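RECORD TYPE: inverse folding
INPUT: structure tokens
STRUCTURE:
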């Protein structure tokens, strides 16, 4: 499996509820339609209540941690090709303008590690 994460900030003027609703009902379906190679797509919307933040920590500039999984390297590469195809990239960018502050977007491939109790 290959995993990518995106740190995304909601567009100014949207409430948290509006942001989540748009992401879930419009943006996520668009991404899945463009890249059917994605085998798991999770949105982790941050909750400020009860958060533990170190004194002096930089202010958070994202509202959701998005995770996308691909079953193998071929699927990952096909999805990246689909995302960067000029027509698809334009569709994604136009949709993102409705929901994200794109100046804060960060997208990474990650190596996931997990620890479980025996």
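DESIGNED SEQUENCE:
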């Amino acid at each position: 499996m290959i995993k990518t994460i995106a740190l995304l900030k909601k567009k100014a003027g949207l409430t948290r509820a509006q942001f989540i609703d748009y992401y879930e009902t419009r943006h996520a379906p668009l991404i899945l339609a463009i890249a059917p190679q994605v085998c798991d797509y999770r949105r982790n919307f941050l909750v400020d209540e009860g958060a533990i933040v170190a004194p002096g920590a930089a202010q958070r500039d994202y509202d959701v941690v998005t995770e996308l999984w691909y079953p193998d390297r071929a699927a990952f590469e096909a999805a990246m090709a689909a995302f960067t195809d000029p027509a698809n990239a334009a569709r994604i960018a136009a949709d993102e303008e409705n929901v994200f502050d794109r100046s804060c977007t960060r997208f990474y491939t990650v190596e996931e590690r997990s620890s479980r109790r025996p």
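NOTES: The first strand starts at residue 2 and ends at 8.
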